[in-house]
Amino acid sequence: MPLSDRQTALLADRLPGHEVVADHGWGLVGTTVLQIRHDGADLIVKAGDDADTHIARELRAHREWLAPLVARGRAPELRHADADAKLLVTRYLPGALVQDTPAEHEPSTYRGAGELLALLHDRPAVVDEGYGARLRDTVLARLGRPHRIAPGLLARLRAEVAGWPTPAARLVPTHGDWHPRNWLVHDGVVAVIDLGRAALRPAPTDLVRLAARQFRWDPALETAHHDGYGGDPREPGPWRREWIAEAVGTATWALKVGDEPFEAHGHRMLAEAFPD
């Protein structure tokens, strides 16, 4: 997606003479991600379209939650931002993405990631009395959208979700997409990028995507992550609810954007939650 005229003008004003080095966009949502060079320094530009909600989340994370990670060089530093224009610029972090590299199978990577996640979660918690009800209502709403969930499973899902308890929840800053595709490794040190889904949530939500993939490959990866984090924050009842919410969200969102492999992954998660 090209930058809007306003975004282009803002970049030209704040970073005159910059050059585009690479396009790091995923192509599935309306967010542009560019690596640029200005005055000899590499920077990352993120820009959203009119429907974008990720830039506002990422800006909040930078402004309120990331300082301890940035101070350690383990998250990008915010350089420029314009919330109205849905534009932000951060320092480029050196390193290689972990996903699809040997580092994705190394326990040391997960130990470092666990340490990093503990830093992100280490904030005064907010107790939210309405979280459980919102989670239930969100999942039921998603089940009312287009999806390819089998009718029998759909009936079981709706019955269980409608009956979920709705206790208060302890919320902390979460990444929202805690996964090797958003980790970098540089000189053996793990850093995090892409806070476009950051929000206040229960801490265990940041483990769902790992548990559905990498933790299955090798128990040592899960153990290493918990070692780095300082324990396992999951409890059975809330964990099942978050797992189902993630599975339904994955299956419905992936169908909407046409990502069939990711949709299949959501269906696998549902099958595991509701075995025959």
Automatic annotation (TrEMBL):
InterPro entries associated with the record: Aminoglycoside_PTrfase (IPR002575), Kinase-like_dom_sf (IPR011009)
Single GO MF descriptor: kinase activity
Stretches assigned to the Aminoglycoside phosphotransferase domain: 36-237
Gene3D superfamilies to which the protein is assigned, alphabetical: 3.90.1200.10
Keyword annotations of the record: Kinase, Transferase
Alphabetized SUPFAM superfamilies for the sequence: Protein kinase-like (PK-like)
Pfam families: APH
Descriptive protein name: Aminoglycoside phosphotransferase (APT) family kinase protein
